[in-house]
Task: structure prediction
Amino acid sequence: MIDATHWEKLRVMDPRDVTARSLADYDAPSAEYRLRILTDEVRISPERRAVAWPPGARAAPSTAPGAGKPPGFNYWLVSVVYLLSAKALQPKGGWVSATALPYGEFFFRGPHALPTESVASAFADRPEAFERAAEALGGKPWPAARGAFVLPALPRVPMLVQLWERDEEFPARASFLFDCTAGDHLMVDAIWSLSTIVAKRLVESAG
Result:
């Protein structure tokens, strides 16, 4: 699922450098990286060119669609690209739209529009369920706005997710914002995949 050159680049990298940049862990006996995406751990093996859940783990609650299945392509892409590209930069706390990131204005449109509609639809009349889902994924309330949570999407790539519930005048709406350093860690295709993961896990975590 991932280009062989990416795997080879990751295989020959010094794990100490990779973990310092990405804040992932490395298990020397298994030669695997262990990376948190939200509250889920994925294990990345450059030797086997594989991304997997820990033994016995499930990616989602047992009631969620796809629970127990292996990680899909979005997890593979985000994991490998992040380990390759992450920089030793702390988030700055400056929130920007995806279109404000490098190349984002041209990429995040049409089929690559961020999947905010699925979140708005799932929680249109359920703001409390949205709050519970965000907190279940490690989110912390953002004090500057109602219905907004900062999610630990990746160790160095937080996301700000906000929900406006439906009312008599307007339909429900959701937005995804990114720390202004997100483009230093991920290219736009991986940012889109990460957003897709976040949207899917929010909906799944609502039960």
